[in-house]
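Retro notes (design track)

What went well: tokenization of the new backbones is finally stable.
What didn't: we kept losing track of which sequence belonged to which structure.
Fix going forward: every design gets posted as structure first, then sequence, in one message. First example under the new rule, 140 residues:
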């Protein structure tokens, strides 16, 4: 499967499953929402979650997307880079989380100050996933 074709198919979706590697080598899956930024996928994560610890230890992940009604799926294999944890409502990570929100929701938040404060309180950051290969099938 062609990675550009799979990425194009992914633009019509927002939800997927992120598979990270636990310390003992077993996979761990998490339902996530994503936004596409150029060739990369952006995923908002919380600093204290197991998937974040897994990605800090081993940045290899799989992003699996499916459309069961069409018997279609793609599984991207690649690596992630993590931004710093947002610590101030006006820091660069908070700015990136605002852009992420807009991309995922397609709308403006009703109160950006509240959103930015929540990102700090949640200790949020972004995982930038760069796919390196893909498998799957896309049925139209």
């Amino acid at each position: 499967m062609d990675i550009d074709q799979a990425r194009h198919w992914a633009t019509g979706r927002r939800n997927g499953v992120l598979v990270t590697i636990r310390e003992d080598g077993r996979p761990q899956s998490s339902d996530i929402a994503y936004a596409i930024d150029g060739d990369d996928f952006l995923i908002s994560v919380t600093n204290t979650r197991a998937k974040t610890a897994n990605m800090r230890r081993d940045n290899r992940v799989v992003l699996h997307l499916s459309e069961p009604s069409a018997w279609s799926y793609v599984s991207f294999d690649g690596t992630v880079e993590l931004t710093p944890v947002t610590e101030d409502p006006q820091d660069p990570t908070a700015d990136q989380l605002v852009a992420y929100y807009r991309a995922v929701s397609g709308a403006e938040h009703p109160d950006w100050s509240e959103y930015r404060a929540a990102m700090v309180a949640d200790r949020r950051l972004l995982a930038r996933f760069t796919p390196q290969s893909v498998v799957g099938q896309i049925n139209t």
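Added context from the reviewer: Strands lie at 15-21, 27-37, 40-46, 60-67, 72-82, 124-137.
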